[in-house]
Amino acid sequence: MFNNKNNQSGFIKWILIIIIAIIILSYFNFDLRAIVESPETQGNLGYAWGLVVIVWDDYLAGPILYLWNDIFIDLLWDSFVDNLERIKGGEPTTIEELSPAPLTN
């Protein structure tokens, strides 16, 4: 049903597209190093990076770090590691401990 090969081919496809694009640009005598190292490109990249830093600092850092530290690490990851240690030690997991006892007839 799910094909792992398909996911990997998507990554490989993008790498091949980038390589083909570089070959095509080289064929038409575009010098990528000159383009990337030009003062205009460096200025534009510096401006874009400045915008990314502003957006991260002012809007994204707080919510993303909260979700990462307080939700993912504290609630999910620590419970996951604790339950793996319990399984490794042959103990019941927290879900097994907190579940109601099965009904007997």
Any idea what the shape is?
elongated
Main β-sheet: number of strands, strand sense, barrel status? none
Number of strands: 0
Element order, helices and strands? HHHH
Structurally, how many domains make up the residues?
2
Taking all residues together, what is the mean pLDDT? 88
User: What class do helices, strands and sheet pairing give?
Assistant: mainly alpha
Indicate the low-confidence ranges by residue numbers.
none
Describe the overall structure:
- This protein is mainly α and 105 residues long.
- It folds into two domains: 30 residues; 56 residues.
- Helix content is 81%, strand content 0%.
- The protein has four helices and no strands.
- The longest helix is centred in the middle third of the chain and has 50 residues.
- It is elongated.
- The chain starts with a helix and ends in a 7-residue tail after the last helix.
